[in-house]
Structure formats: C-alpha cells, structure tokens
Amino acid sequence: MQQFLWGAATSSHQIEGGNLNNDWWQWEKDGQIERKEQSGLATDHWNRFREDLKIAQDLKLNSYRFSVEWSRFEPQEGVWDENAILWYRELLRECEGRGLLPMLTLHHFTIPKWVADKGGVAWEGFAPKFLEFTKRVVSSLGSRVPLWCTVNEPMGLAIGKYLGGFMPPATYNPELVSQANRNLFHAHVLAYDAIHQGVTQREGPWKDVPLAVGFAHNMIDFLPARSWHPMERWMTLLCRNFYNRSWLDAVTGQKQHFGITGLLPNPPQLGIALGRKTVDFIGINYYMKVYLRWRFKSNQPATSEVLPLALQFSEPTDKVSELGWAVYPAGLGRMIRFVKTFGLPIYITENGIADAHDKMRSSYLVSHLREVAKSIRDGADVRGYFHWSLIDNFEWIKGFEPRFGLVEINYENFQRLPRPSAELYRNIIEAHKAARGQAPDLSVLDTNFLKYFLQE
Ligand code: IFM
After folding, report:
1. Strand partners, 63
2. Is the CB of 24 within 6 Å of ligand 1?
3. What are the tens digits of pLDDT across the range 313-371?
4. Is the pLDDT of residue 452 over 50?
5. Mean pLDDT of the chain
6. What is the pLDDT of residue 450?
7. pLDDT at residue 305 greater than cutoff 70
8. How far is the CA of 49 from the centre of ligand 1 (A)?
9. Residue 62 to residue 58: CA distance in whole angstroms
10. Staple partner for 409: which of 73, 154, 392, 396, CB 3.0–4.6 Å?
11. Is 405 in contact with 42 (CB distance < 8 Å)?
C-alpha cells in the first residue's frame, strides 16, 4: 500500500521567476496586476530550488507537487529548450534525494506566448500542440514521475479568461468559455493517453508506485444565500452542476456538459472520451464556499453580466482570510463526499489560506485535515494532502501581497523563513508516522488532532 502523501504544492510561474515567454508575463508588462506588479524573479526558485526542497524535507513532507512550464520547454513553436528540460531533471533528482515523491502538473494556468497569440486555450489547435508538449515531458522526465496532473483548475481557467476578467486575455465571451473547457478537456484526454502509452519504463525510488494520472479540480461549496429563496436554490444547483460536476462527469466517461442552457453554449461531445475513464484519480483544490445572492430589483451591483446574481464570499459571522475568503472546512468534507461517488482515489491537490502573519493558518490546517481524516474514516479513498503552498508566491492578478506559504519569502533578499504553521504541519506528519508507521489510515490521527486542536 502506498503511504499517505503529506505534501505541499507550487506552480512554475508563481515561484520560478524569469518565465518571460508566456501569456502572463506579457499581461503583467501590460500593467494588469494589482499595484502594477510583475512576477519578475518571483521567489527565485529557479536558482534556489535545492534550498526549497531541503525545507520541504525538513518539514518531513514525503511528496511535492509542482508544474512544468510549457513556455520554457518550447519558447517558440517547435523550438525545444534542452536547458529547461535539464533543469526539471535536476529538480526531480533533488526530489528523489530528499524523499519527495513528485506529482507533476503539466498545465498550471500559463501558456506560451506563441500559443496565446493563436487564440490560447480557445484555439482549435490547442489540444494537439499540448499533446506535443506532453510527449516531450513524458520522454524527458516520464520514467521518474509516478503521479501526474494534466491540467490545473481548467474550469477556473476558462472562466477567468473569458468571463471573470481575472486571467489573460480577460475578454468577455461566453462562447469561448465553452470552447476553452472543451479544448482543455481534449488536451487532458490526449495527455492521459500519451502518459500511459509513453511511460514504458520506470526508474528511481518510486518505480514501483503505480503510475496514476489525474487532474486538479477547483471545487467550491456553492450555497444559496437564503435557503428559502427559489432562484438562489436553483442557481446553486446550476453552479454545482456546471462548476463542480461537469469535469467529473467528463473524465469518468459520461456525457460532457460544459454549457448551461440559455447562458453558455454546449460544445459538441468529445467522442474519444465517452464511455471510459480518463483519470486514475481526482485531485481536489478546495479553498472556499460561495453564496449565491439573487439581486432582482436591487440597486446593489450583480456579479454576473447577464443575471441579477451576486457571488458572496462570506457572511458577517465568518472568519475570513486576507483575500476575504471564508474559512469553511465543512465544505472540504462535502466536496470529498461528492467526489467519492465517482469511485476513484482522491488527492487533496491544493488547500491553503492567504495569511501573511500566520494567525489563522495553523487552525485552518488542522480543521481542514480533520475533514480529510473524517472522510477517510468514513470510507473515502483519500491518498494525500498537498498544502498550498510550500512558499509564498506570485498570486496571479493579486500579485505578491497574498501570502499562502508555509514558508515566508522575504522579497528583498529571497530569504526563506518557515512560519510557525509549518512547524505544526511537521508535527502532524511526525505524529501520523509515529502513530501508524507507513499505514495510510488516519483514524488514529484524530486523537492527535484533538490534542493539537486543544492546544490552540
Ligand atoms: O495560487 C492559486 C493556484 O495557482 C491555483 N489554485 C488556487 C491558488 C490560490 O488562489
């Protein structure tokens, strides 16, 4: 039995620095980020990855989720950069030396600028080009990687780019949301097959861990702002089905429903994915609940351009993060219970909080891990937890201000300083090991959790 994975997650553009050939770099230069920030050197992970992975090892993590940057592999169409490939090989070697089982993400929000110029994820040539990239990654790194995420938060990406205006190119076009979802799904399916066909030999310390390919699914606990309100209840159902469910149905071979009747066009079915599973696990990225508030005849602004609907991120009684997201661990439990119905292994591929002064992260961590522990006790096959994030990083349109790291980055001198919550995470991991050795069963951990909980 594979041991439970205690990990942390990052993504290339948010930490590496100097990713100058992708769409975000361009967008940052165009002044689109808060305070006009630019990712620049980010955390200088490109030069300091050894130090970062040593910290991960010191924290007793046994796994690390990271992404590879397509725009580094292929800065121009058809031009492959061997240096980039070598760097990721070094990164994998470092993971191996430090006992960190790698989970590799192929696509975490950024695309090469040359892809963006052709229409990005909404371009019909996107999936075949992504397949070429995937094959390069598979042939250069594949033998040493047991766990793969094809795409990170595809639904959030499609919405961020073509509805919400918080990702480049930030154009409003509902049709492109559907197209982007379909292309990303197509890319996912091609990558799933390419990994399984292309990884023929395995090497390194995890060569016997079964190869598993999944995707990281952003899930939100949608709730009606007023439980009696019929429109809010109806919108809640729509959002759950569209945002949380459609990708899960698609990757498990059911009918793809990347549209919403009357709001977003339904793209054609992708035949090659019907009737079969194209994932070996499901990754859950969970951060928040969202209330849907119907604002019919109200003079308060609506969030949606076509409906009098507002998304509300908290209630006055909620504890909120520095981004205003309510701390709501019960939602994680609910998402796990929902995903469990699809009958696949689960990883929590992201979960974390923006909390610069580390005032809330410890209790956040404990309360969310309790939900994980409870769901395992109740029969969910959760195989790992990856905290977002190992280190502070570039939080996309929000810039560097939100601090998600277990480890603080001083952006003046790039010093790394583990926060107290990192110490707590280490203690939890050690307690788990002590309690159960290599076993993945977390039931005993509840006792330890209680201990930590009472100490707060
Ligand atoms: O930083 C992001 C990450 O890139 C994707 N998931 C959510 C995180 C926090 O917003």
Report:
1. 7, 101
2. no
3. 999 999 999 999 999 999 999 999 999 999 999 999 999 999 999 999 999 999 999 99
4. no
5. 93
6. 47
7. no
8. 20
9. 10
10. 392
11. no
User: Whose CA is closest to atom 10 on ligand 1?
Assistant: 395
Q: Is 114 in the pocket of ligand 1 (CB under 6 A)?
A: no
Q: Is the CB of 350 under 6 A from ligand 1?
A: yes
Is residue 105 within 6 Å of ligand 1 at its C-beta?
no
Ligand 1 contact, 244 CB (< 6 A): no
Contact assessment for residue 340 and residue 381, using Cβ atoms and an 8 Å cutoff: yes
Structure tokens given for 132: 């070429």
Task: Tell which one of 43, 395, 401, 406 to mutate to probe ligand 1, the residue whose CB is within 8 A of the most ligand atoms.
Answer: 395
Locate the ligand 1 atom nearest the alpha carbon of residue 11 and give its number. 4
Q: For residues 279, 133, 77 and 80, what is the CA-based torsion angle, rounded to 10 degrees?
A: 160
> Does residue 180 register a pLDDT over 70?
yes
Ligand 1 atom 1: residue of nearest CA:
395
- Pick from 148, 130, 136: nearest CA to 198: 136
Using a 10 angstrom Cβ sphere, with 0-12 exposed, 13-18 middle and 19 or more buried, the burial of residue 323 is middle
| CA gap 90, 419 in Å, rounded | 27
Whole-prediction pTM: 0.95
Are 14 and 70 spatial neighbours (Cβ–Cβ below 8 Å)?
Answer: no
| Residues with Cβ within 8 Å of residue 192, at least 6 apart in sequence | 150, 213, 278, 279
Q: What is the DSSP letter of 35?
A: G
Q: What is the Cα–Cα distance from 369 to 385, expressed in whole angstroms? A: 8
Question: Phi-psi category of 219—alpha, beta or left, where left has phi over 0 and alpha has psi -120 to 50?
Answer: beta
Distance CA 283, CA 2 (A): 17
Mutational test site, ligand 1, from 149, 313, 350, max ligand atoms within 8 Å of CB: 350
Contact 87, 144 (CB under 8 A): no
What residues contact residue 73 under an 8 Å CB cut-off, 6+ apart? 80, 81, 84, 85, 133, 136, 137
Region 214-237: mean pLDDT is 97
Which of 26-40, 61-75, 288-302 comes out lowest in average pLDDT?
A: 288-302
Over the stretch 206-217, which tens digit does the pLDDT of each residue have? 999 999 999 999
User: What's the rounded Cα separation, in Å, for the pair 155 and 404?
Assistant: 22
Quick one: tokens of 319?
Answer: 């504890």
Q: Indicate the burial class of 313 (C-beta count within 10 angstroms; 0-12, 13-18, 19 or more).
A: middle
Q: Which amino acid is at 364?
A: Y
Interval 359-387 mean pLDDT: 93
Query: How high is the pLDDT of residue 299?
Result: 55
Query: Quick one: average pLDDT of 287-300?
Result: 81
pLDDT tens digits, 416-448: 999 999 999 998 888 877 766 544 444 545 555
